[in-house]
Design brief:
With 286 residues, the protein is of the alpha/beta class. 38% of the residues lie in helices and 22% in strands. The protein has a domain at 1-68: Alpha-Beta Plaits, CATH 3.30.70. It has helices at residues 13-23, 48-56, 88-95, 99-110, 116-125, 133-141, 149-158, 171-181, 209-223, 240-245, 256-259, 273-276, and strands spanning 2-7, 29-32, 36-41, 61-66, 74-77, 162-170, 185-189, 191-194, 197-202, 230-234, 248-252, 264-266. β6, α8 (171-181) and β7 (185-189) form a beta-alpha-beta unit. The chain is elongated and about 65 Å long.
């Protein structure tokens, strides 16, 4: 059996019923009134992606996946534009007066148009001389949690899941975000300092796409769980490895080139959508 999950604010009950009838689905279960619903189907519908494209015009997210094993034991999450609403390096660059230039490089790198490692080295180089104290300022005044981040973490952890934050960004930020949201561990790159200013360099080796896959392998082995027990979420090209490897890979408001390679795409909902696609109802949220 497969399960079809529909998420929108608001979600039209008539639309849900029409799709259930068209696909010969089981009785509809509402996970959240007028927000999220699901029903079973015997197999993947042939016109899945045509329907998905039509629903995008109505700002409705739809996920079709196997029913078995969708409640996951581990969350593996990207940070920038995923667990938080910003790109930390762009915010630092704005403080350094090169915000627009760096933001353009970031966008291209996240869409897979540039080599991630080379792009990171170039952007960090533009931060040379920026006072280290600016990191604290950016954390306090510019960084905000992604909608639904708290509910996602607290609910999964309340049900025994492990949570790991893996970022191509910087430990100066992941350390704070991981603590604030309740992640069990975090991995990221380290900005090097020269006294009380940034040196314009990042510690090697750089944590990129392969390092996120390595984190998936190492953490699941340590926890003695299968990679299929993991839900991974991210938005950039450097997340594709872990999104394709995890049991459930979710492209959240992802760059077009990234979303095109991932079957579970959340383009309109927030991080609570990751709970709905695992079968949690709004009443289950912590």
């Amino acid at each position: 059996m497969y399960v079809v999950t529909l998420i929108a604010r608001p979600l039209d009950p008539a639309l849900v019923e029409a799709l259930r009838n068209a696909w010969g689905g089981t009785e509809v279960t509402w996970l959240s009134v007028d927000e999220a619903a699901e029903f079973g189907v015997p197999g993947v519908p042939d016109n899945q992606w045509d329907v998905w494209a039509d629903l995008q015009t109505q700002k409705v997210d739809m996920v079709v996946q196997p029913t078995k094993g969708r409640r996951k034991k581990m969350l593996l999450a990207d940070m920038d534009s995923t667990m938080i609403r910003q790109e930390c390096i762009d915010e630092l660059a704005d403080e350094a007066g090169v915000g627009a230039y760096v933001a353009d490089i970031t966008a291209r790198a996240m869409n897979g148009e540039l080599d991630f490692e080379a792009a990171l080295i170039e952007r960090v180089g533009l931060l040379k001389g920026l006072p280290v104290r600016v990191i604290g300022k950016v954390l306090e005044t510019r960084i905000t949690k992604m909608y639904g981040a708290v509910e996602l973490l607290t609910t999964m952890k309340a049900h025994g899941a492990h949570a790991a934050l893996v970022s191509g960004g910087f430990t100066a930020f992941t350390q704070r975000i991981a603590a604030d949201l309740g992640f069990d561990e975090h991995r990221a790159n380290t900005l090097l300092e020269d006294g009380d200013v940034l040196s314009g360099q990042v510690a090697m080796p750089i944590l990129g796409r392969e390092a996120k896959v390595q984190a998936l392998e190492e953490i699941t082995a340590r926890l003695a769980i299968a990679e299929s027990d993991v839900i991974a979420v991210g938005d950039g090209a450097n997340d594709l490895g872990m999104l394709k490897r995890a049991g459930m890979g979710v492209a959240l408001h992802a760059k077009p080139a990234v979303a095109a390679q991932v079957d579970i795409r959340i383009n309109h909902g927030d991080l609570t959508s990751l709970l709905f696609v695992q079968g949690y109802s709004r009443d289950d949220f912590v």
